[in-house]
Amino acid sequence: MHTKEEKLAAFGDFLDVLDTLRVKCPWDAKQTNESLRPNTIEEVYELVDALMADDTANICKELGDVLLHVAFYSKIAEEKGQFDIADVCTRLKDKLIFRHPHIYGEVKADNAEEVIQNWEQIKLKEKGGNKTVLSGVPSALPALIKANRIQEKARNVGFDWEKREEVWQKVKEEISEVETEINGGSREKIDAEFGDLLFAVINAARLYGVDPENALERTNRKFIRRFNHIEARAKEMGKNLKEMTLGEMDELWNEAKTKEAE
After folding, report:
1. pLDDT of 124 over the 70 cut
2. What is this structure's pTM?
């Protein structure tokens, strides 16, 4: 691993290259916050893919791509006389110190749960910070992640089930309400009840220490692997998926499950 001096030198060299590209490269020179934003989202998802795969080399690469975007936005702001990368680092450093009074102050926090509860109270007190408990949840978050964050923030101020087992009654209640609306409700009511059911299931996952986004993505990948197996085996057998019966496809699905368990 590198020394602090080597890390600072590497970061400085990277910033020097970015400064040069911003002036001399036609593509880099024309970029704006608006033009970069879609790419930023893509880079973050690529980092998430690498993290899910636990691919160390790719994690390093994708972290670099995300860092490039952080530095690029800072460079654009510097050109406008708004702030630069040093301001970004300083504000982050100050926020970390302010939000860790159990390290840099007199507040006591003996476990991670107490740290999180302190954070929520601190964020409400910060100048220019969140005005309400839920105002810090970005509106642009995907719905599943947003639901989980909303529930976490509500929990941090004490709005949660007293016993986590109680959530299952809520899940069952929501399933029943979905079934009722399917049997005679309007499309709007059916959508609403499905939303309530999903929210309750996400709540259950949180209460049992499961990240619902990660859990669902693992299932997505598992389904893709198994379905790809069905498609490949069908091709070996000279069959078209559309011509196969559900029973034939189920047999290949179970074959894929068996191979995974070996």
Report:
1. no
2. 0.67
